[in-house]
């Protein structure tokens, strides 16, 4: 069973060797990620010129369990809109938080603002 939920920013920080990358590395093979956030990572890499045929095996090395964005997560993410609207959180952000909420796991992100949210979700910041 996983011990943490990754936001796309955690994986991207590791891929880009950014500050906090070592913190993300400590959880590799022990994290789950919402399919929406996985899609964000793929989009960033393809946008930078990577081919999907290369992206898929590169990301598989992270050992992330990709959790489908099902009806329950969609409803949870939608319900988070009111509490997060003032902070400008995206659907991807809310999908990640919804997965953390449902899984009762902390979430790892590079977005410091998430620490200000009053959602009863344990937010760990990379840097």
Task: Give an account of the 3D structure.
This protein has helices at residues 8-15, 21-25, 35-47, 52-60, 71-79, 81-84, 91-103, and strands spanning 4-6, 31-34, 65-67, 107-109, 123-125. By secondary structure, it is of the alpha/beta class. It has one domain (4-125): 5'-nuclease (Rossmann fold). A 5-stranded parallel β-sheet has the order 3-2-1-4-5. The longest helix has 13 residues, at 35-47. It starts with a strand and ends with a strand.
Element layout with pairings:
Layout lengths: L3 E3 L1 H8 L5 H5 L5 E4 H13 L4 H9 L4 E3 L3 H9 L1 H4 L6 H13 L3 E3 L13 E3 L2
Helix pairs in contact: 1-3, 5-7
Q: Main sheet?
A: 5 strands, parallel
**Fraction in helix:** 40-55%
Report the span from N to C terminus.
25 Å
| Total helical segments | 7
If you compute it from the alpha carbons, what radius of gyration comes out, rounded to the nearest whole angstrom? 14 Å
User: What is the structural class?
Assistant: alpha/beta
| CATH class annotation | Alpha Beta
% residues in beta strands: 5-15%
CATH evolutionary superfamily: 5'-nuclease
The stretches of 5 or more residues where confidence is low (pLDDT under 50) are none
- By CATH, the topology is Rossmann fold
Number of self-contained structural domains: 1
At CATH's second level, what is the architecture?
Answer: 3-Layer(aba) Sandwich
How many β strands by DSSP?
5
- The shape, in one word, is globular
Sketch the topology as an H/E string, one letter per element: EHHEHHEHHHEE
Report the average pLDDT across residues: 96
Sheet with the most strands: spatial strand order = 3-2-1-4-5
